[in-house]
Design goal:
The complex is a heterodimer of chains A (129) and B (382). Chain A is an alpha/beta fold and 129 residues long. Chain A is built from six helices and five strands; from the N terminus they run βαβαβααβαβα. Chain A has a single domain (3-120), classed as Rossmann fold (3-Layer(aba) Sandwich). Chain B has eleven helices and 14 strands. The termini of chain B are far apart. The chains are: A alpha/beta (129), B alpha+beta (382).
Chain lengths: 129, 382
């Protein structure tokens, strides 16, 4: 099973994702903004990062710039999990190397787990429920 | 001039007085105004234009308009001569109005609203006159409005995400077993959260389209697969009403189409969802894809209540709902088809419909197979 870093500022949602992903036997580390995520990455090597975009202190885009996903971590999958649908921020996240974007409020827990598995296996599925 | 004193008719002025009056009229225009001869050389420029562009009159008079007044795209690349409104006004003999960016003498750019008219004499263009104004403030307001909408939609959706996620977790047994009655209540909560979410999406997309801020990210899209996803997502709603939903793509594999998968999916979602919503029990909804010479045609046909003839002209207008629909289905907003039309326009496609009241409706959408005017990413949407 995979190592997953969850970066989400909403405590309720962050906790929910941890419960859901751990029930699928993934190892989960939680961070609540980009800065905490960078710190966590010093001790944890994820296979996938579940990343929110709009967060205090350091948002998802700034995190991706610092992390330098394309050049330094090409094997790490990044799944953008946001409510900013069809926005320029999502386009920018793709430019910074994100693999997929799913809309939080459209995605049911069992579908989140499925999308994560499929992203790790390079497959495309619908996340809408 | 006192009101009692009669005005001097222009015709009675001598040539010099008429020239002075014309000059005064030209210089008094509150927007920037520039006149050229038939070769595009600047013959007159008013003080507002000089102030906006940062030049003095000596630098402008006699200069070739397209070279002296540099028009650029949003990315700061120069607009080609053939695309300049002044060129088009000369070539077509028609007034051209559009928005652009002008580069000031100091190198800064400003958004402008331009109207160029050819000056015609005995049917031939003898020059052109351009009026333009600085629309920096309007652009700034649009940007702020767009930022506000994005932020507001994000903030509205965050609690909604929690409601939906935890309701699903309860339903799926993450917090222990639930009774059938509890499960039914949880389904109601999820259904309401989904409706709220759809409404936020629709409002957000409409605001983006209306303010010209819709972001079209084109990819080579496997439209058959995308259509299949749409059909799957609606199969539950269809089976609840015992409506058959079918996808027809023909026997040959379909080529990919350069379009924005998220926006186009929204179009198909709306049309299929409408088809199911407005078709009675045991009816049918079919999505057909046809590969045509220049475009891909998508047809959503239902055996529903149809659109009354007298309502057909208004069907794509905002908040419009046909009378027969209002009588039977109360949950619609009248925004779906308005949004669909805006999205299809943004994707450079076409939409139309054929409908017979009481028998059903077919909505046709075409997407061009080649988009030359837009940058495309060659990335395959797999």
């Amino acid at each position: 099973m995979a190592n997953i870093l969850v970066v989400e500022d909403d405590k309720d949602l962050n906790n929910a994702y941890k419960i859901i992903l751990e029930s699928e036997n993934h190892t989960v580390v939680s961070a609540f903004n980009g800065k905490e995520a960078l710190k966590a990455l010093g001790e944890f090597t994820p296979d996938l990062i579940l990343l929110d975009l709009l967060m205090p202190i350091m948002g998802g885009l700034e995190f991706l710039q610092h992390y330098d996903l394309i050049n330094k971590h090409p094997n790490v999958k990044v799944l953008i999990f946001t409510n900013m649908e069809n926005s320029p921020e999502v386009t920018e996240a793709y430019n910074l190397g994100a693999d997929r974007c799913i809309i939080k409020s459209w995605t049911a827990p069992q579908n989140l787990a499925r999308v994560i598995t499929d992203t790790l296996e390079n497959r495309t599925v619908s996340a809408k429920s | 001039m006192p009101p009692s004193e009669p005005r001097t008719p222009i015709a009675s002025l001598n040539l010099e007085e008429q020239r002075v009056l014309a000059e005064a009229l030209f210089t008094s225009i509150g927007d920037g105004a520039i006149a050229t001869d038939e070769f595009g050389k600047i013959t007159r420029i008013n003080p507002t234009a000089l102030q906006l562009l940062g030049y003095n009159e000596r630098e402008m008079i006699g200069a070739w308009f397209p070279k002296k007044i540099v028009s650029v795209h949003e990315n700061n690349q120069a607009v080609s001569l053939i695309d300049r409104p002044i060129t088009r006004a000369f070539l077509t003999g028609k007034t051209i109005a559009e928005k652009a960016y002008y580069r000031r003498k100091n190198g800064q750019t400003m958004p402008v609203s331009i109207t160029v008219s050819p000056i015609m004499l005995q049917g031939k263009p003898v020059g052109a006159i351009e009026v333009f104004r600085d629309i920096t403030i309007e652009y700034e307001i649009d940007r702020m409005k767009s930022d506000f909408i994005s932020l507001a939609s994000h903030q509205l959706r965050t609690p909604l995400s929690s409601i939906k996620t935890y309701s699903h977790m309860l339903m799926d047994g993450y917090m222990g077993e639930v009774t059938p009655a509890q499960r039914k209540s949880l389904r109601t909560i999820v259904g309401a959260a989904n409706r709220m979410n759809e409404l936020i999406s629709t409002l957000l997309n409409i605001t983006r389209i209306e303010s010209g801020n819709v972001t079209v990210t084109r990819k080579a899209v496997n439209v058959a697969r995308l259509a299949e996803e749409v059909i799957k997502e609606h199969s539950l709603a269809a089976s609840d009403k015992e409506i058959s939903v079918e996808l027809k793509t023909g026997s040959k594999p379909l080529p990919s189409v350069p379009t924005d998968p998220l926006l186009f999916k929204e179009v198909l979602n709306n049309l299929v969802s409408n088809g199911i919503k407005y078709t009675p029990q045991n009816g049918s909804v079919t999505l057909t894809i046809q590969n045509r010479r220049y475009d891909m045609q998508f047809t959503v046909t239902d055996s529903g209540m149809g659109i009354p003839k007298y309502s057909q002209e208004q069907i794509f207008t905002k908040f419009f709902r046909a009378h027969n629909v209002v009588k039977q289905e109360t949950s619609g907003t009248g925004l779906g088809l308005y949004l669909v039309k805006g999205l299809v326009d943004a994707l450079e496609g076409k939409i139309w419909f054929e409908s017979t009241e009481g028998k059903g409706t077919s909505f046709f959408v075409t997407l061009p197979k080649n988009i030359e005017s837009q940058q495309q990413t060659a990335q395959e949407e797999d």
